[in-house]
Structures are given as structure tokens and as C-alpha cells.
Design brief:
Number of domains of chain B: 2
Radius of gyration of chain A: 16 Å
Largest interface: A-B, 21 and 25 residues
Structural class of chain B: alpha/beta
CATH topology of chain A: Rossmann fold
Distance between the termini of chain B: 20 Å
Strand order of the largest sheet of chain B: 7-6-5-8-9
Order of helices and strands of chain B: HEHEHEHEHEHEEHEHHEHH
Largest sheet of chain A: 5 strands, parallel
CATH superfamily of the largest domain in chain B: Aspartate/ornithine carbamoyltransferase
Strand content of chain A: 25-35%
Strand order of the largest sheet of chain A: 3-2-4-5-6
CATH topology of the largest domain in chain B: Rossmann fold
Helix content of chain A: 25-40%
Order of helices and strands of chain A: EHEHEEHEEEHE
Oligomer: heterodimer
Number of helices of chain B: 11
Number of helices of chain A: 4
CATH architecture of the largest domain in chain B: 3-Layer(aba) Sandwich
CATH architecture of chain A: 3-Layer(aba) Sandwich
Structural class of chain A: alpha/beta
Distance between the termini of chain A: 5 Å
Helix content of chain B: 25-40%
Number of strands of chain B: 9
CATH class of chain A: Alpha Beta
Chain lengths: 179, 309
């Protein structure tokens, strides 16, 4: 099993700042926009972006939520391992809001498909966008593309992109692992 | 999150402590779901569940049906009173006929103890016991423990007294198994005629004096006097039962501490508890009903995830 560093801590930081600026460009004061991190790993990206927006770009108020998609997935009873649920924390309605769904890695697109279904339980958003830190090109099973992407990579199915965060794994780093 | 160690929920007796914790953690997620404005998830859209009730039930049946619908399962309802069972069909034949219509799971209530276990050995479907005679009512015990956990933070180490007709109660037996498995201390209290002999062998103590039992406990689970099951006279009059084993506000206030009052329903107001107790802040009776849906969703979801494609 080999692994190589895809993005270092410094590169991740630069990319997060760029993504935050792109969000600012489209959403200005975030009054009508909500950020929703997809559980379990998308929440770290969402939290970082919210932090940058509020601390460095002085956005006064950001609605940030976490969405668990376990019960909406299309592979229930199809895998070997049981699906593991995590917490959903959305304390606001998404009715008529612009929603930015945030995840760490976009691969087959099935998680996003499940997230779009799950989102319907919280109202009818006026618009939904997708932000992903890593976009694995040419591996989609569904017609889903991100509006904002950190880095596009070509990885074959045997490879795995592993995103690690300081608050959870000790350091910010992204590996491409050859299984 | 792991997997249940069983393929059927036949009784608490067959569960491990880790199964109970897994059911509780899963129920936490479903509790959040059923408090949303849209209370439904699509997980079980390719699962069909038959609710087969050979005995009357309102709340358990509604709760199961609602749990199944919240998970997007297809639901069939069947009551023995309107069926071919009356024409002499056997249990296995009845269920196999239903299963040949491609049903994946059966939720069954039956007047005979062990009916679920018997069925699980003879038919190809996941079986959930929704009450079998005076044997077990596992989902009720799970939701009772879940409600204690929600109210007091933990079940382990808590003192729980079960008051009333222990002899005929499947709720009592399942509760004893569940509470002991989670490390709670359990006492039973009621007229001597309604306490089974040798119940101490299950690790519970018998207390004949209600006041002493209440002074000892953190939680009192008040069972209903099941007049329909009392084939002979177990106590002289209902009034005398109420005087000795009924909980009223005066008694509760005189304890010098706040205990939690539970009741599996339906309540006979004025018999086992008075109205002001049932509706007091200490009572979590309606929380139990809400938690029942979340617990049943968790049980059905976890069992369904073990049904092979």
C-alpha cells in the first residue's frame, strides 16, 4: 500500500481561502445563504470555511448545518458493512434559501444524490450549489458536478483519497492512497 | 455502528448489552428525524412488512405502523378477527401465505407465549415480537429503558421498581431482562398473588410495601391491572388494590424526593395511578409513546439491514 501527499497543510489553507472568496463573490453577506456540511467528513470543510468567512472576511452571520445522509443512501443492504449514522444538526429551514452543500471528496456522486434527497426534508431551497475540496474526475456514476472545487484529481478506482484534519486527525493533509 | 447479533427480535432474553446500546444510538438519530417537519426517510423503500395481530392492540400497532411508514416500508395490516384463522388455518400456513406475497418482515402479536420463536424457526422472514402472551414485549422494554436513559442520563445503577400485576405481564418480564442487562437494580411490588414464585431467580427483589419501594427507587413503572387476564380473583376489590398499590399525589409528595413515573399504557386512571400523577411533571408517560416510534424505527431498520438482497 503506497501513499503520496496530494495537498499539504499550506496548500489546503490557500485553497480554502480561495473557495471562501468564491463563495463571497456569489453570496455577498450570506443573509439568504446557508452552508451545509455533509456528514461525516464534509463538516470539517464547512466549519473551516465558515470560520474563514466570519473571522477573516467579517461576514456577520452564517447559518451552518450538518446533514447526515445515511438513511437516504441508495446502498442500504447492498454493502458488506452496515451503514453508520451520524448526527444531523440543521437548526433552520432551508425554504427559499440558497444552499451550499459541502463535502470533502466528490467521487461517484451518489452521496450528493442522497444529500439532495435528504435536503428535501428541510424545505424547498431556492437554489442548491455544491462545493467540494477534492473532485475525482471521470469517476461519476451520476450527472453531478461541483460549482466550486478545490482541486481536481485523476485517480483510479483502486486508489483512495484520504483527507485529514488537524481537529480530528492531528494535521491538515490529503493523501492519495494506493490500495 | 455495528450490527445486531440477532436476525429476529423475539425477546430481550436473546439480546446482548451491545445490541441494546446499538438500538438506542440508532433511535437517537430517528428521534431527530421524527421531530423534523418532514418526518420520513427512504431507507426501507424496498422492504415489505406485515403486521400480524392475533390479539387486540391500539398503541403498539399504531406505533409499529407509523415507524414502518416513517422508514418508507410497504405495510400490510392483518387482524386475526377478520381472517381465515377463524376458519381453522394454522399459524405457519397463515404466515407462509402472507410471505408468498414477498413480505420481508413480520411484526406479530400473539396470545401464546413463544409464538414468535416458533414462527422464526419455520418461516423465512425477520420476526419482531410485538407481545406473546405473558412472555415478552421487547420493544416496550426497550422504549422504557430508552426513556429512563433520556430522563436520567443512564440506566446502569438506577433503582427501578415495577409495580402491579407482575404475574401476567410481558412488559414486566421484558423490562426485568432489559434493566438487569444494563446494570440497573430492580424490585417488583404488588399483591402477593400477582408476584410469580421464584421471581428472585431473575435477580430482582420483592417488596410488598409500596411506600418502601417508592422511597428506594429512582423510577417507578406502574403496570395496568389487566382485568381481561385475571381469570380468578387475585385481590378482593379494585378499591382495595388502589389503596395499597395505587400511587397518588400525596404519596408522591411525601417521599421527599422526585421519582420518575412511567406507565406502558393504557392507564386506568384512579386505579394504579391517579390523574394528577399521570399528568404531573414527574410522569414521562407521553415521552414513552414518542420514544416508542423511534425505538421501533431503530429495531426495524437494524433488522432490515440484515436481510440479504
Amino acid at each position: 500500500m503506497g501513499q503520496k501527499v496530494l495537498l499539504s497543510s499550506k496548500e489546503i489553507n490557500i485553497i480554502l481561502h480561495r473557495l471562501a472568496c468564491q463563495l463571497l463573490e456569489n453570496h455577498e453577506d450570506f443573509k439568504n445563504t446557508v452552508l451545509i456540511g455533509i456528514q461525516p467528513r464534509g463538516i470539517y470543510v464547512a466549519q473551516r470555511l465558515a470560520k474563514i468567512l466570519s473571522e477573516e472576511y467579517k461576514v456577520k452571520h452564517i447559518d451552518l448545518g450538518f446533514l447526515d445522509i445515511t438513511f437516504y443512501r441508495d446502498d442500504f443492504r447492498r454493502g458488506d458493512k452496515p451503514l453508520e449514522a451520524t448526527k444531523t444538526k440543521i437548526n433552520f429551514l432551508v425554504e427559499d434559501k440558497k444552499v451550499v452543500l459541502i463535502d470533502d471528496v466528490l467521487y461517484t456522486g451518489r452521496s450528493i444524490n442522497a444529500a439532495l434527497t435528504a435536503l428535501q426534508s428541510f424545505g424547498r431551497p431556492s437554489e442548491v450549489e455544491l462545493l467540494t475540496l477534492i473532485d475525482r474526475r471521470f469517476s461519476r456514476h451520476l450527472p453531478i458536478q461541483p460549482n466550486y472545487r478545490g482541486r481536481q484529481v485523476d485517480a483510479i478506482d483502486d486508489e483512495k483519497v484520504k483527507v485529514m484534519w488537524e481537529e480530528n486527525d492531528g494535521e491538515d493533509i490529503i493523501y492519495l492512497i494506493n490500495r | 455502528m455495528g450490527e445486531l447479533s440477532v436476525n429476529h427480535l423475539l425477546g430481550i432474553k436473546y439480546l446482548k448489552e451491545s445490541d441494546i446500546q446499538l438500538i438506542f444510538e440508532t433511535a437517537d438519530h430517528f428521534k431527530e428525524v421524527i421531530n423534523r417537519s418532514i418526518k420520513k426517510v427512504p431507507s426501507l423503500r424496498d422492504i415489505t412488512i406485515a403486521n400480524i395481530f392475533f390479539e387486540n392492540s391500539t398503541r403498539t400497532k399504531l406505533s409499529f405502523e407509523l415507524a414502518e411508514k416513517r422508514l418508507s416500508a410497504d405495510v400490510l395490516n392483518f387482524s386475526a378477527s377478520q381472517s381465515s384463522v377463524k376458519k381453522g388455518e394454522t399459524l405457519i400456513d397463515t404466515v407462509n401465505n402472507i410471505l408468498s406475497m414477498k413480505v420481508d418482515m413480520v411484526v406479530m402479536r400473539h396470545p401464546n407465549p413463544g409464538a414468535g420463536i416458533f414462527l422464526s424457526k419455520h418461516v423465512k422472514a425477520s420476526i419482531v415480537n410485538a407481545g406473546d402472551g405473558a412472555h415478552e414485549h421487547p420493544t416496550q422494554a426497550l422504549l422504557d429503558s430508552y426513556s429512563i436513559r433520556e430522563k436520567l442520563g443512564d440506566v446502569a445503577g438506577k433503582n427501578v421498581v415495577i409495580v402491579g400485576d407482575i404475574l401476567h405481564s410481558r412488559v414486566a418480564l421484558s423490562n426485568i431482562f432489559a434493566l438487569k442487562l444494563q446494570g440497573a437494580n430492580v424490585k417488583v411490588c404488588g399483591p402477593k398473588t400477582l408476584i410469580p414464585k421464584h421471581i428472585e431467580s431473575l435477580g430482582v427483589q420483592v417488596e410488598m410495601n409500596l411506600r418502601k419501594a417508592l422511597e428506594w427507587c429512582d423510577v417507578a413503572n406502574m403496570l395496568r391491572i389487566q382485568n381481561e387476564r385475571l381469570d380468578i380473583s387475585y385481590f378482593p376489590t379494585t378499591r382495595e388494590y388502589t389503596q395499597q398499590f395505587g400511587v397518588n399525589k400525596n404519596l408522591l409528595d411525601s417521599l421527599g424526593k422526585e421519582i420518575v413515573i412511567m406507565h406502558p399504557g393504557p392507564i386506568n386512571r384512579g386505579v394504579e395511578i391517579t390523574s394528577d400523577v399521570a399528568d404531573s411533571k414527574q410522569s414521562i408517560i407521553l415521552n414513552q409513546v414518542e420514544n416508542g416510534v423511534a425505538i421501533r424505527m431503530a429495531v426495524i431498520y437494524l433488522l432490515a439491514s440484515k436481510i440479504k438482497q
